[in-house]
Design goal:
Helices cover 2% and strands 32% of the residues. With 281 residues, it is mostly beta strands. The protein has one helix at 34-39, and strands at residues 2-4, 8-13, 20-25, 57-62, 77-83, 90-95, 103-109, 123-127, 135-141, 162-166, 172-177, 184-185, 198-200, 210-214, 219-225, 240-247. The mean pLDDT is 93. The strands form 4 sheets. Strands 8-9-10-11-12 form a 5-stranded mixed sheet, with no helix packed on it.
Length: 281
């Protein structure tokens, strides 16, 4: 699978004896760009370049009987997820269990929940909410605010958050952000989060326990997932708790905020899981 800036998701058969493109998908909102692409108009400024599907692809492969083969009759599934990145704010989810008959499961922009451009690659994980069975989820950052295209320090209005959504329908399960409607309100979350969220299973039970993420204000955030807790509740009695772990730029300084002390993190932190007798850390 590959995505391109003309707005096409391609599926290729990699059989070296008979390689071919199996199918291609163009999101309906991007079809209006096809005429301009066909005529190949000259751009006056590089900034005028258009973007279609610009994000990384993530695949969720569910092999129920673990026999190494994807057989729909066994309940096996293969799901594919991709965000537009610079192309827009929408994430797309596909069921590609059948190589020749894919289906679009859902397409959703989270702009209404404060998200920006869909830069953050969704991370596959499993969580257990309350007394329900564990479910497959996607975890990603709030995205990119084009305010950060400038060189000077600036605070953002979109992309300030972390999302956990249902992998099968895209519905928001949990969200951290600076606004009062977030499940975990963090008023110091003032910058967008285009990078991936680093998700860790500390106990080896197949459920996500910890998340690390960095933002464009030079901050690093840590979140702990308490599986079995409800999404909402009093502090200490809800699914996710967390906050700012470190501020390494000038975001917490009063003044001056200059280009020389402005730090932006576009990528995920890279934690190391240490295990030895006693608790892992």
């Amino acid at each position: 699978f590959a995505v391109t800036n003309d707005g096409v998701l391609h599926a290729f058969d990699r059989d070296s004896n008979d390689p071919e493109e199996k199918w291609a998908f163009i999101p309906r909102p991007l079809t209006s760009r096809l005429r301009d692409l066909y005529y190949n108009a000259t751009l006056v400024d590089p900034e005028d370049r258009g973007y279609g599907l610009d994000g990384n692809i993530r695949v969720l492969r569910i092999d129920v009987d673990r026999d190494g083969r994807i057989e729909s009759s066994d309940g096996d599934r293969v799901y594919l997820y991709v965000g537009q990145r610079r192309g827009g704010s929408t994430y797309y989810a596909f069921d590609v269990t059948s190589k020749t008959a894919p289906t679009l499961m859902w397409a959703r922009s989270y702009a209404a929940e404060g998200a920006g451009q869909a830069w953050s690659t969704p991370v596959n994980a499993r969580v257990r909410i309350g007394n329900t069975a564990a479910k497959d989820v996607l975890i990603f950052g709030g995205g990119f605010d084009t305010t950060q295209d400038g060189l000077n320090y600036a605070e953002d209005t979109v992309g300030r958050g972390v999302f956990i959504v249902d992998a099968l329908n895209g519905n928001v399960i949990w969200r951290a952000g600076p606004d009062g409607s977030a499940n975990l309100q963090l008023t110091s979350m003032k910058h967008s989060i285009p990078g991936d969220v680093r998700v860790i299973d500390l106990t080896g039970d197949g459920l996500a326990d910890r998340m690390y993420v960095a933002d464009l204000g030079g901050r690093i955030w840590r979140f702990d997932i308490f599986n079995g807790k409800p999404v909402s509740g009093a502090e200490g009695e809800r699914l996710v708790e967390g906050g700012m772990l470190a501020s390494l730029g000038n975001a917490e300084q009063s003044a001056p905020k200059t280009q020389s002390n402005t730090i932006r993190f576009f990528y995920a932190p890279d934690p190391a899981l240490i295990t030895r007798p006693g608790p892992a850390f």
